Amino acid sequence: MKEKKLIFELSQPGRRGDALPQCDVPEQDINRLIPQDYIRESEPQLPEVSEVDAVRHFTALSQRNHGVDSGFYPLGSCTMKYNPKVNEDIARFDGFSKVHPYQQEEMVQGCLELLYRTDKMLSEITGMARISLQPAAGAHGEMTGLMIMRAYHEQRGEGQRTKIIIPDSAHGTNPASAVMAGFDVIEVTSDERGGVDLESLKAAMNEEVAGLMLTNPNTLGLFDENIVEIANIVHEAGGLLYYDGANANAIMGISRPGDMGFDIVHLNLHKTFSTPHGGGGPGSGPVGVKEELVPFLPVPVVEDKGGTYFQDYDRPLSVGRVKSFYGNFGVIVKAYAYIMSMGAEGLRNASETAVLNANYIMNELKNDYLLPYDRLCMHEFVLSAQKQKDHFGVSAWDIAKNLLDGGYHPPTIYFPLIVKEAMMIEPTETESKETLDGFIEKMKHIAQEAAKDPEKVKGAPYHTVIGRLDEVKAARTPVLKWERLG
Amino acid sequence: MSRYIPNTEKQQKDMLDVLALASVEELFADIPKDVRLERKLDLPDAMSEMELITHMQKLASKNGNLNEYACFLGAGAYDHYIPSVVGHILSRQEFYTAYTPYQPEISQGVLQAIFEYQTMICELTGMDAANASMYDGASALAEAVVMACQATRRKEVLVYKTVHPETRAVLHTYARFNGSKIIEVDYKDGSADLKALEEKISSDTAAVVIQSPNFFGAIEALGEIGERAHQKKALLIVSADPISLGILKSPGELGADIVVGEGQSLGNAISFGGPYLGFFATTQRLVRKMPGRVVGETTDQNGSRGFVLTLQTREQHIRREKATSNICSNQALNALAATVYLTALGKQGLKQAAMLCMQKAHYAYEELIKTGQFTACFSAPFFKEFAVRSRRPVEALNRELLKEKIIGGYALGKTYCELKDSWLLAVTEKRTKEEIDRLVERVGNGETGIGGGTV
């Protein structure tokens, strides 16, 4: 267990890396250029290190981190699939990475074409009319999609529709995004098969409801078999259906949200379309809509005028901008390259394999752990450590920490909230059977250990660079930056 | 099988046998027949890696890029030098293929890097606490406005028109839906007009929003504006250029309550507008109202220092509809780029970068004025960007410059109708004297070269 020094603690006064040239224009006294009271009296305390210090420091930090390339990463709802290397190279092409967003349109036709074609392809995959690529992440897409929903109702003179229905199994971002878009949230319960309870939904619908937000397959990894009826209930009461695309990796080429009855969709390019998660971002959260809602998309929208692409700002009903410029372009480039690599069959194949992989693990582990919803799952499933907790005092948390020692990133734990001691497992399609078997074996081993030697299991991790961290202390007396001593 | 799917057909068959299923089809039994897609998706045929590279190169070559052109265009995205080391560190898979550090024991790398980032942002801005970064400068400002309304329990926000037009557009979008009210405040001589502020500020004002250097490049008198805001118990929100903070007094010293900004300049590729990062910092008093992910220091059971995501009770996965924001990610890799950039430049290097920008921008400005074809737009001091009034249409100048492999400035008339003849030029440390002289020469002669906008 070794601490790693902070970059500031490696600093030596006067040491520097030299990347910048000398000034080649006639220099003037700074006080001639800027009034003295605008100028800093003391410099910001940035590190003073050499390039080799910097490289070793950040290399050492990287070695204290687990990525998809390090090993299996079955973090449920996050779709930690392999990030193709060639897409990294492509996004760094000068013609993509060194383009200013305000260059004249004739100088950026390649960028605009790429955005336009990505819109078309994602529209086809989701069954939507158009897609805006502006939102920067899934939650940002949710907020944007809900703003579109609200603007649509207002335009129709139904501004009283200020409530959004969200199932209790939903991601926490759903209700939080609804509030950002100015809605109140009504929660509906799930039925015994893990789907939306139709009676609760019917009871909740009225003329104040703007729509329903649904993840399908939901966070239990289950496809809602009643989707057609759900869509009818919502539409008949004048509401719209919002599709949270967090779990779209289960359905590509198999079923489209647009055909299920959804009116608005967001996707996570960093999940379904293989762009790397970057340690927490950048992502990209495009929003797609059906024809009737197209006028409300954020500005600008890329249009094609006889093979010349342009940004259309003249969209009076648009909700406006949600971000500077045109979205996380560098991420969109990688997603485009991914779709071009996979093609229609490849995408379908990815979803089929993701679903098969998930069912395989679920089947192999359902005798060792509680499986609260014992039916075919989609691309992910939720196990519970309730048995281990009740009999041996071993929690989902402890199981996660044991997986760390095995070189695995643990599943998402304690989510969804409707399953106690939840462990949400999503293997993705990019893992081999050998990898899945290794993980299954480790999970079985932990279950056995929990029965035999629970104290040992509760003491994990033993082989990580640091032990279990005191999160209560971190929150109670927050230390959010380094302070120079003395 | 596609190239990113490793299981062989035999392995898939074996797995189906274990599940006692005859085909993959049966796995999808829960999906009702009438919502199944009974055809193939209509997409281009799959490309091999080799074909893909050719295809993408062709697309990329349709764009003019900043290796081919000297760029004097800024307006919110800047062509700063990125030290080589930044790209090398970002390419480490342990950083870029990881996700949000939910499991701190195997995420100390990202967590510590973010902690270092937070420290650097506090140093630059002069604030007590920074979050782990946000989507971009504009959305960071929108989140700051939401936070100010929550913290003051007021609904009105005064925003100077010298704030980036796209950023203001984002503020209007957020406000339209969250019930707050954005009131724009006029500028005078390219800078914040105090009188206009005094006319509009009231006990309903949650915050005053100002950008410095502002969209025209002018450095604002933050102290005076902060005083007016604080007299009414409103917050001062400052959007800052991080490179300028290498030499300019920090907004924290000048009374800011929240400091945000576009962090692209800190080692991030210009990349047609994204991905960038928004930095976000505030005072100790407001730290628990701050949106976004935050990393804090703590210890493990042996007393070793380590880092975790903290103050999570503000966040959506615990608070759901009562959260301070819906944000559940940051721009971690972009924040890492900023951290490596600020490390590579270091204390002296950032100051040097800022000085180079300022010297070169002033040189370019003075040379342009000398030609007699341009006059000063405004009189306020500026940093790396400035506006000049042109005798000839600026669109024509820009077209003409492309022939010299120069990308000219931003036509301010696009977003400020009163500035139709004004040209906004950014000069970073990357612009050489030779490039500046070439620009000046090309546009400085009233007689030749420009065909009155017919080009």
Compose a concise summary of this entry:
The complex is a heterodimer of chains A (486) and B (455). With 486 residues, chain A is of the alpha/beta class.
Write the layout of secondary structure elements.
The complex is a heterodimer of chains A (486) and B (455).
Chain A: H1 30-33, H2 51-62, H3 85-91, H4 94-97, H5 109-126, E1 130-132, H6 138-155, E2 163-167, H7 173-180, E3 184-188, H8 198-204, E4 209-215, H9 227-236, E5 240-244, H10 257-260, E6 264-266, E7 287-289, E8 301-305, E9 308-312, H11 329-365, E10 381-384, H12 386-392, H13 396-405, E11 412-413, E12 422-425, H14 433-452, H15 454-458, H16 471-476
Parallel strand pairs in A: 2-3, 2-4, 4-5, 5-6
Antiparallel strand pairs in A: 1-7, 6-7, 8-9, 10-12, 11-12
Chain B: H1 9-18, H2 49-60, E1 70-71, H3 84-90, H4 93-96, H5 108-125, E2 129-130, H6 137-152, E3 156-160, H7 165-178, E4 181-185, E5 187-188, E6 191-192, H8 194-200, E7 205-212, H9 222-231, E8 235-240, E9 258-262, E10 278-282, E11 295-299, E12 305-309, H10 316-319, H11 332-370, E13 374-376, E14 385-390, H12 394-402, E15 406-407, E16 410-411, E17 422-426, H13 433-444
Parallel strand pairs in B: 1-15, 3-4, 3-7, 7-8, 8-9
Antiparallel strand pairs in B: 2-10, 5-6, 9-10, 11-12, 13-14, 14-17, 16-17
Helix pairs in contact in B: 3-11, 5-11, 6-7, 11-13
Textual characterization of the structure:
The complex is a heterodimer of chains A (486) and B (455). The model of chain A has no long low-confidence stretch (mean pLDDT 96). In chain A, the strands form 3 sheets. A 7-stranded mixed sheet of chain A has the order 1-7-6-5-4-2-3, with helices on both faces. By secondary structure, chain A is an alpha/beta fold. Chain A has a domain at 86-341: Aspartate Aminotransferase, domain 2. In chain A, helix 5 runs parallel beside helix 11, helix 6 packs across helix 7 (173-180) and helix 11 (329-365) crosses helix 14 (433-452). Chain A has 16 helices and 12 strands. The longest helix of chain A has 37 residues, at 329-365. Chain A has helices at residues 30-33, 51-62, 85-91, 94-97, 109-126, 138-155, 173-180, 198-204, 227-236, 257-260, 329-365, 386-392, 396-405, 433-452, 454-458, 471-476, and strands at 130-132, 163-167, 184-188, 209-215, 240-244, 264-266, 287-289, 301-305, 308-312, 381-384, 412-413, 422-425. Chain B is of the alpha/beta class and 455 residues long. Chain B has 2 domains: 70-80 and 352-444, Aspartate Aminotransferase, domain 1 (Alpha-Beta Complex), CATH 3.90.1150; 84-340, Type I PLP-dependent aspartate aminotransferase-like (Major domain) (Aspartate Aminotransferase, domain 2, 3-Layer(aba) Sandwich). In chain B, 36% of the residues lie in helices and 15% in strands. Chain B is built from 13 helices and 17 strands. In chain B, strands 2-10-9-8-7-3-4 form a 7-stranded mixed sheet, sandwiched between helices. In chain B, helix 3 (84-90) packs antiparallel against helix 11 (332-370). The radius of gyration of chain B is 26 Å and the shape is globular. Chain B starts with 8 loop residues before the first helix and ends in an 11-residue tail after the last helix. The relative contact order of chain B is 0.14. The model of chain B is unreliable at 449-455 (pLDDT under 50). Chains A and B meet through helix 2, helix 3, helix 4, helix 5 and helix 6 of A and helix 1, helix 2, helix 3, helix 4 and helix 5 of B.
